[in-house]
Amino acid sequence: MILINGQPTDAVNAMDRGLAYGDGVFRTLRTHAGQPLWWSDHYAKLAADCAALALECPDATLLHAEVRQVAEAGQGIVKIILTRGVGARGYALPIGNACTRIVLSAPLPPHADASSDIMVRWCALRLARQPQLAGVKHLNRLENVLARAEWDDPAVFEGILCDDRGMVVSGVMSNVFWASEGELFTPDLSECGVAGVARARLLRAAARFGIRSHIGRLGPDAILAADEVMICNSVIGVCRVARLEDVIWSPAGWTALLNNALYEDVD
Fold first, then answer.
1. Could you report the per-residue pLDDT of 34-55, keeping only the tens digit for each?
2. How far apart are CA 154 and CA 171, in angstroms?
C-alpha cells in the first residue's frame, strides 16, 4: 500500500524536487503486527534529518497513523519519504510550498532473515566527504547504488565503504561495528555516511552495559585486526561478519550480545 500526502495513490508529480534533485530524506523501518519497531527513535532521527535540510517534519501522530495504516499484518517494512515538494525548475528553494509525504509498505526482503554469519567485501567506490550532509539519510544515494553495482555474487552480503582518504565509513546499506580487546568501535560519521537508528541504539546499549565504545576515523587495518566485526541496520539487526574477502573470523560472542541489546525495549 502507498499513501502520498495521506491519499492512496502511486502518482508523484514529475516536478517534485525529490525526483529532480534528491531533495528530501527517508527512513526505512521494520514493522510487526502492524506496529513500527523503535518508532520514537525513527521519528527523532527523521525530525533531525529534516532540520538539517530545512524541511518541515510531519506531525508525529499523523505519521504514526499512516505507518500503521500501510503496515503489513505480520512482519514487514515501511518506508517514509519526505521531499521538498513540487517546485519550478532550478536549484533555488521554493517559498512556502508543502512537502511531499510518501508512506509505503513492502514485505520483508530476503536479506532481513539472513544468517548472522555473512561474507562482505571492500568496495572500490570512495565516499565523498560533505560535513553538512554527514549522518543524514537524504534521498541522494547514488554513491550507494554504484557501490552495490560492483558485485553480483549472491554469496557476498554487503560491501564496506571507505571515504576518499581511505577511512572506513560504513556498509552500503548498514553501519559497521567491530570489537577489539573487550571494547567496541564504530566509524566517525561527521564527514560522510548515514548515522542509522540501529547504530545509535547499539551505542546506547554499550553505555548501559558498561562497554567502552569508540567513535573514530580508522582505516581498514583496524577492522582486519578486530576480534569480531558486525554490520547493523533497522531491518537486519546485527549480523556477524564471518569473512571479509580473504580474512576469516571465528565467533567471539559479541553479535549475540549486541543483537539482544538492540531489541531491548528500554529506551
1. 999 999 999 999 999 999 999 9
2. 16
